[in-house]
Design goal:
Number of domains: 4
Number of strands: 45
CATH topology of the largest domain: Methylamine Dehydrogenase, Chain H
Radius of gyration: 31 Å
Strand content: 35-45%
CATH superfamily of the largest domain: YVTN repeat-like/Quinoprotein amine dehydrogenase
Distance between the termini: 15 Å
CATH architecture of the largest domain: 7 Propeller
CATH class of the largest domain: Mainly Beta
Oligomer: single chain
Number of helices: 13
Bound molecules: [4Cu:2S] cluster, dinuclear copper ion
C-alpha cells in the first residue's frame, strides 16, 4: 500500500501494526515461566484446558444469577470470561436500562410498591423444547419482591417483569416445564395472599404458601398473566421446585422447610425461627399434577384472589392433584432425573440424599397408600413407599446436577465444602473433590435437561476467604471450574464473581444461541416493534408546542452516526418537557453510540439500528452539554452538542453562528490534497477487497456495506465543499472538505478492518 497522508498513516497505524507483528519470540521459555510463577505440570494442564487464545470462542455460555445485584451475569465455559451483565430488576447504566423510556416501562410494569430498584435473583431457567434447551429465552426470579423476568436471547435484553399477585416472597422459581408452557414460582415465607395486615396469631389459618404456574406465550415471547394460576399450599416454607419430564411430565415437585409452621419472636421470649423451624425430622415434598390443575382452572374451579386464579387446597385434594411426601430434615434442592423417573432431594441437616421413584409415587397414589393427612387434609405418601434409595454423601448436601452418563450425578456438600459424584441407581459414591469454600448450587453443562452434556461442572461457592487478592471485608464469590470428563473430578480454575451472591447458573451449548448483531432500523428493543419515533437520515427535526395552559413540550427526532449527533443544539425554555428520540443509523457491527446530558440523568445506549427515547423536565435555565459516551471513532470526542435552556421570555440577539477560526483558499486546497491522498488509500483497499472472494464472508459483506454508506456521505460533503468553493466561500468550503475527509477516514478504517479479516481468514484472490 502506498503511504500517503501523515494523519491517515497515524490514524491507521494501529491496524497495520496488529497485522505485521503478530508475535515476536518470547524472551523466556515455558520452563522459565513455570519456575518464575511457581507453576506445576498439573497447573499447566489445567491452564491448557481453560485458556482461550485471542479471538477464540467458548463451547458453553453460562447464565448466572447476579444475586442481590438484580442482574444476570453471562460468562463463557471453559474460559470463565465474563461477557455481559444483563440488567433485569436493577437499572444498568451502560445498557441505558432504567434510563431510557422504553426500559423504564419494563421496570415500571414490574414494580412492587412503586420504588423498588433491586432484585434478589436466585434461579435462572432456559426455555426448553421437549425437555432440551432451545436457546430462545431466559427466565429469572426475584426472591425479595416475588417477580419473574423474561429475557429474550435474540438480543439478551429484559422484555418483561411480572409481579406475583399473591405471594410476598418467592424462591422455587424460575423452572420451566419441558415445552416451556409454564414457569413455576413457589413461595418461600408464608404470608396472607391479600395485601393487608393479618396478625401472626392467625398464621395457621390465614398465612399460606403456594406454587404459581406462569403461562408462557411463546408466540409473543411474553408471560400471559391472565392464563397463569396459583396452587394454594399450607404455610410451610416452600423452597425449590422442578418440573417432571418424560416419565413424570405433567407433574411438578416443590420441597419445603419449616413444616413445623413455627413462628418465632425472640423479642417476646420465644425460641428463634432457626430452632423452631428445624425441630421435626422431616418436612414435606409437594407433588403436584399441574396438568390436572390447569384443567381445573379451565373448568372454573379456581377462586379469584387479587384478580388471579387460585386453586384452593381442598379442590386440589378432591381431584387427586396434590400430595405430600416426607423428606429429610431441612431439605434443599429437588432435581428430576433426565428420564424423569427419579427425584433427588437433599437435606441440609442430614448427610443423605434421598432418591424418590416417580413410579413408586404413582403406585402409592393409585393404591391410596397414604400414611395419613396433614392438618390441611392433603394426603401424605409414606417415605418408605416412595423411596428408591437413600445415600450417605457427606455433610450438608444441597443441590444435584446430572452428568452425561446414566445414573451419574453431582451433589454439592455445603458443610463439607465438597462436590460428591455418585451413582443414584446403585446408591454409591464414586468420587469427591474439595472446593473453596461452602458450595451452594453447582451446574453441569445442560445438566437439568433431558440430555445433559456433562464435561464441565462449576461449583458456585458462597465463600472465597483466602482465594483472591484481598479487597476489603466484602469478598467476591468464587465460581470454580471442574473438569468432569474423566473418572476423577479435576479442579481447573477459580473465577471471582464480584456482583452479588449468584445462587444458580444454567449453561447451554453456545452454538444453540443465535443472537442478532444489529437491530432492524428504528427498533424499540423492549417491545420488539418498529419505534414510532424512528428517524431517517436527513429527516431529523425539533418541534416545540404549547398547550392552552402554557405547558410546552420540545420533541426531538434525532440521529447518531459516526461522528455526529443530529441535532447539534437543542433549545428549550425553563420548565419545558423535553422528549428526545434518537435513532442510531449505524448498520456496522458493534458501532454503538451513547447519549448523555449533563445534570438530567439522561444516559442512553444506542446500539446499531435502535431508536431510544428519553423524556425529562428541563426545569432550570442553563447550558447543558451532551455527548456520545462510547468511543466510537477517531472523532468520538467531537460527537457533542448543547441543550440550551433559556429563561422564560429570552430574545436572541443574532442568529449567526460564531467560530474561533477563519479559513482561506490555501486551507481549502490543503484539505483537498489530503482528501485526494486518502482516496488513494481507500482505492487500494477497495481494490484488494474486490479482488478476493469477500462475498463468502458475511462479516466482510456487512463492513463493505457500511463503508459504502460512509463513502456516500463523503460524496455529499464533497459536493457541498465544491459548491462553496465555486462561490469563493473558503470558510464553508474548507469545513465541508474537512467533513468529506472525516467520512473518508471512517471508510478507510472500515476497509482496513475488512482487509485484516480477509487476510486472517484465508480469503482467496480471485481476480487480478
Ligand atoms: S438456593 Cu441459594 S444455595 Cu436460593 Cu437455589 Cu440453594
Ligand atoms: Cu459515538 Cu462516540
Amino acid at each position: 500500500m502506498k503511504i500517503v497522508s501523515k494523519s491517515v498513516v497515524s490514524l491507521l497505524a494501529g491496524v497495520s501494526i496488529a497485522l505485521g507483528a503478530i508475535s515476536t519470540a518470547s524472551a523466556s521459555s515455558l520452563e522459565d515461566v513455570m519456575k518464575a510463577r511457581g507453576l506445576t505440570q498439573k497447573d499447566l494442564l489445567a491452564a491448557a484446558k481453560t485458556y482461550t487464545p485471542t479471538g477464540g470462542r467458548d463451547e458453553y455460555l453460562a447464565f448466572s444469577s447476579g444475586g442481590q445485584s438484580g442482574q444476570v451475569i453471562v460468562y463463557g465455559i471453559p474460559s470463565m470470561r465474563i461477557l455481559k451483565y444483563i440488567g433485569v430488576f436493577t437499572p444498568e447504566p451502560w445498557q441505558g436500562y432504567g434510563f431510557d423510556d422504553e426500559s423504564k416501562k419494563v421496570l415500571a410494569e414490574g414494580q412492587v410498591n412503586g420504588h423498588i430498584t433491586y432484585g434478589d435473583t436466585h434461579h435462572p431457567a432456559l426455555s426448553e423444547t421437549n425437555g432440551d434447551y432451545d436457546g430462545q429465552y431466559l427466565f429469572i426470579n426475584d426472591k425479595a419482591n416475588p417477580r419473574i423476568a423474561v429475557i429474550d436471547l435474540k438480543d439478551f435484553e429484559t422484555k418483561q417483569i411480572v409481579v406475583n399477585p399473591v405471594f410476598k416472597s418467592s424462591h422455587g422459581g424460575a423452572f420451566v416445564s419441558p415445552n416451556t408452557d409454564y414457569i413455576i414460582e413457589a413461595a418461600q415465607y408464608p404470608a396472607p395472599y391479600e395485601n393487608k395486615f393479618v396478625p401472626l396469631e392467625d398464621f395457621n389459618d390465614k398465612y399460606r404458601g403456594g406454587m404459581t404456574y406462569w403461562k408462557f406465550d411463546r408466540k409473543k415471547g411474553r408471560i400471559d398473566p391472565s392464563h397463569s394460576f396459583t396452587v394454594m399450599a399450607p404455610p410451610y416454607s416452600q423452597d425449590l421446585s422442578d418440573f417432571g419430564k418424560r416419565a413424570s411430565d405433567g407433574w411438578s415437585f416443590t420441597n419445603s422447610f419449616c413444616s413445623e409452621r413455627y413462628v418465632g419472636g425472640i423479642e417476646k421470649g420465644r425460641p428463634p425461627y432457626e430452632a423452631g423451624c428445624s425441630q421435626k425430622d422431616t418436612d414435606f415434598l409437594h407433588v403436584v399434577n399441574w396438568k390436572k390443575a390447569e384443567q381445573l382452572v379451565k373448568a372454573g374451579k379456581a377462586v379469584k384472589i387479587n384478580g388471579t386464579d387460585v386453586l384452593p387446597i381442598d379442590v386440589m385434594v378432591k381431584n387427586n392433584a396434590l400430595f405430600l411426601i416426607p423428606e429429610s430434615k431441612s431439605p434443599h434442592g429437588v432435581d428430576v432425573s433426565p428420564d424423569g423417573k427419579y427425584i433427588i432431594v437433599s437435606g441440609k441437616l442430614d448427610s443423605h440424599a434421598t432418591v424418590y421413584s416417580f413410579d413408586k409415587i404413582q403406585k402409592a397414589i393409585k393404591n391410596k397408600d397414604f400414611e395419613g393427612k396433614d392438618a390441611y387434609g392433603i394426603p401424605i405418601i409414606s417415605m418408605k413407599s416412595a423411596i428408591h434409595k437413600q445415600v450417605e454423601l457427606g455433610l450438608g448436601p444441597l443441590h444435584t446436577q446430572y452428568g452425561s452418563r446414566s445414573c451419574v450425578v453431582y451433589t454439592s456438600l455445603y458443610v463439607d465444602s465438597m462436590v460428591a459424584k455418585w451413582d443414584y441407581c446403585e446408591g454409591k459414591v464414586l468420587d469427591k473433590i474439595s472446593i473453596h469454600y461452602n458450595i451452594g448450587h453447582l451446574v453441569t453443562m445442560e445438566g437439568d435437561t433431558v440430555s445433559p452434556d456433562g464435561k464441565y461442572l462449576v461449583a458456585l461457592n458462597k465463600l472465597a476467604i483466602d482465594r483472591f487478592n484481598p479487597v476489603g471485608p466484602l469478598h467476591p464469590q468464587n465460581h470454580q471450574l471442574i473438569d468432569i470428563s474423566g473418572d476423577k473430578m479435576v479442579l481447573l480454575y477459580d473465577m471471582p464473581i464480584p456482583l452479588g451472591e449468584p445462587h444458580y447458573v444454567v449453561a447451554i451449548r453456545a452454538d444453540k444461541l443465535k443472537p442478532i448483531v444489529r437491530f432492524k432500523s428504528g427498533w424499540n428493543s423492549r417491545t420488539d416493534t418498529r419505534s414510532k419515533f424512528k428517524t431517517r437520515a436527513g429527516r431529523e427535526k425539533t418541534t416545540r408546542t404549547c398547550d392552552a395552559e402554557g405547558n410546552c413540550r420540545v420533541v426531538v427526532n434525532g440521529t447518531t452516526i459516526r461522528s455526529h449527533i443530529t441535532p447539534e443544539t437543542i433549545e428549550a425554555v425553563a420548565g419545558d418537557t423535553v422528549e428526545i428520540h434518537m435513532t442510531n443509523l449505524e448498520r456496522a457491527e458493534d458501532e454503538t453510540h451513547g447519549f448523555a446530558i449533563f445534570a438530567h440523568n439522561v444516559n442512553l445506549s444506542l446500539e446499531p439500528g435502535a431508536t431510544v427515547s428519553a423524556t425529562f423536565k428541563a426545569g432550570k435555565e442553563g447550558v447543558y452539554p451532551y455527548y456520545c459516551t462510547e468511543f466510537c471513532s477517531a472523532l468520538h470526542l467531537e460527537m457533542e452538542g448543547y441543550l440550551l435552556v433559556k429563561p422564560k421570555g429570552y430574545k436572541a440577539k443574532s442568529v449567526a453562528g460564531k467560530t474561533g477560526q477563519t479559513y482561506g483558499k490555501s486551507d481549502y486546497e490543503k484539505q483537498v490534497k489530503t482528501n485526494n491522498d486518502t482516496q488513494a488509500v481507500i482505492n487500494s483497499v477497495v481494490g484488494y477487497i474486490t479482488s478476493t472472494n469477500y462475498k463468502d464472508f458475511p462479516p466482510v459483506v456487512a463492513l463493505v456495506e457500511d463503508a459504502t454508506d460512509q463513502l456516500g456521505f463523503a460524496d455529499d460533503a464533497k459536493k457541498k465543499a465544491e459548491t462553496a468553493a465555486a462561490k469563493s466561500d473558503w470558510q464553508n468550503a474548507t469545513l465541508w472538505a474537512g467533513q468529506h475527509w472525516q467520512y473518508q477516514v471512517k471508510a478507510a478504517d472500515i476497509g482496513l478492518r475488512a482487509k485484516t479479516y480477509l487476510e486472517q481468514h484465508g480469503a482467496k484472490v480471485i481476480k487480478k
